[in-house]
Specification:
Elements (H helix, E strand, L loop, with lengths): L3 E2 H8 L5 E3 L10 E2 L4 E2 L2 H4 L11 E4 L1 H8 L3 H12 L5 E4 L7 H9 L3 E5 L9
Parallel strand pairs: 4-5, 5-6, 6-7
Antiparallel strand pairs: 1-3, 2-7
Length: about 130
């Protein structure tokens, strides 16, 4: 994949991937995507970061969001800090679901855009 920005992906695929921007103030749209592969970070959400492909687009579906919602405020804060400190280029939330506000806040603090798509994780392809 040639290097593209998050904004290019967002603008070029907004209709077919049914994107909406969850991040405030266009945060993270200037970040470059160097790897077009998608990754579902289930193991990272549970704290396992060995071999975590942080440079890939991270995709969260219903299972991952349900897991996040069961975390304490401190656990959610800690795991989000670990994930976003890996310089993740972009997070896509599927099924039109909304992540916890703290998730989006920490992503924004690390200049990572969070997009929502109405598509399922099985259908989504960037």
């Amino acid at each position: 994949m040639p290097h593209v920005t998050v904004e290019q992906v967002y603008r070029e695929r907004i209709t077919d991937l049914e994107f909406s921007l969850l991040s405030p103030d266009q945060v993270g749209l200037d970040k470059q995507i160097h790897n077009g592969e998608l990754h579902r970070p289930g193991l990272a959400l549970s704290g396992f970061f060995e071999r975590f492909p942080g440079k890939r687009i991270q995709v969260l579906g219903e299972t991952e969001l349900t897991f996040l919602e069961q975390m304490s405020a401190q656990e959610l804060n800690d795991i989000c800090e670990k994930i976003f400190s890996q310089d993740v280029p972009l997070v896509i939330i599927c099924k039109g679901l909304l992540p916890p506000e703290k998730f989006v806040k920490i992503a924004s603090e690390h200049n990572t855009a969070v997009l929502s798509s109405r598509l399922t994780t099985a259908i989504l392809q960037v």
